[in-house]
Amino acid sequence: MKRCLWLCCSFLFVVIAVLPIRVFASWQPEITVGLSQGVSEVRIAATTGSLHVYEDPDKKQLLEVPPGKEIDIRILQAQFLVNGQKIKGDRLVIQPDDTGFVKVNGAPYRGYITLLKKNGFTIINNVQVEDYLYGVVPKEMPPNWPVEALQAQSVAARTFALKNRKRHSTEGFDLCNTSHCQVYEGMAAETRTTTDAVNHTRGEVIFYKGSIIDALFHTDSGGMTESNENVWGSSVPYLHAVTEVQMQTQPWSRTVSVESFVQSVEQDGRSLLGTLKEIRLSPLTVGKGSGDRTPSGRVRSAEFVGTKGRVVLSGNELRSMFSLPSTLFSVRFDRAEVVISGYGSGHGLGLSQWGAKAFADKAKSYKEILFHYYTGVTLEKLY
């Protein structure tokens, strides 16, 4: 009996050992978020309790700041000056007591702060993923939106963060705190509804064939999302165009004088256009493609014919040139003005935030929303 039990236990150990560790992991990853770069001065305090200053958390602390006191940190002659005390290292770590949080220039953050000497210094928030999401989700989606939409956003944001760790590794951190990565404002942004959405989906991450996906999302698709190859050029199996609950959403319009339009088109060494005579672009129908439009209706390219030549521009070039909300647009002109009218906002890839709200309003669950926008994926609990 004992030998049988030993064999059973040994077999169980072997099975656990060979299974993917993410199935059993109870840890929670840490994210490093760049809050500011090129800084010459910062004030740091604790919400409660003391602050502890280290060059390295594994070494003896350099300074302990008592409750209610603030640290003033500056760069002087390429050295840190901490409350008037010079410190030669290239890095400082500032940790609060377990009972408190850290405040950077008055703004509270979970986790702790690292200062990295680089062109002045960079302020970095070391924070666990779930705590990071508390400060992200309310900035990426309105907190008063339906719960299922907030939960879908929470999973997408968590997946994006884990997939894109080290995106700013050359600058010393994982992710920035702007829309280039995800907007993050720490504890000042937190709301009850978004925190509940993060907690409800704790550790849930989107996978495609065993790998974490790049869970792209955008504000509004205009009626149909886009396939990755039509935006960035390469095919991504889980980023395919899908239809929405409603068409022609978030309409917008931009008007530019013909003179300004021609000047913009001719810049950067492009061919001369002269006086604009004709714009060649097929009519816009959401969900209908053509030679110059993608299957969703977004502009692949448009041709502009003038008295001195012709210029062909991609939809992305036009979007960048005139700060357009999306590439789902039509163009018309008269003698004085060029009018660009379209729908949606963002690149159109992955989850549409307004689309998620529309699905949630129709009683779709956050899982149904995610599986609609990301093709052929699975949802797994990483921790």
How would you describe the overall organization of this protein?
- The longest helix has 17 residues.
- 39% of the residues are buried.
- The strands form 6 sheets. Strands 4-3-8-11-12-1-13 form a 7-stranded mixed beta sheet. A 6-stranded antiparallel beta sheet has the order 7-6-5-2-9-10, with no helix packed on it. Strands 15-14-24 form a 3-stranded antiparallel beta sheet.
- Helices cover 22% and strands 30% of the residues.
- The protein is an alpha+beta fold and 383 residues long.
- The N terminus is likely disordered.
Q: What is the tally of beta strands?
A: 24
Question: How much of the polypeptide forms β-strand, as a percent range?
Answer: 25-35%
CA gyration radius, whole angstroms: 26 Å
The stretches of 5 or more residues where confidence is low (pLDDT under 50) are 1-25
Helical segment tally? 9
The quaternary organization reads as single chain
SS-based class: alpha+beta
Form type: globular
Helix content: 10-25%
The biggest sheet amounts to: 7 strands, mixed
Whole-Å distance between the termini?
A: 36 Å
Widest sheet: strand ordering = 4-3-8-11-12-1-13
Average pLDDT, all residues: 92
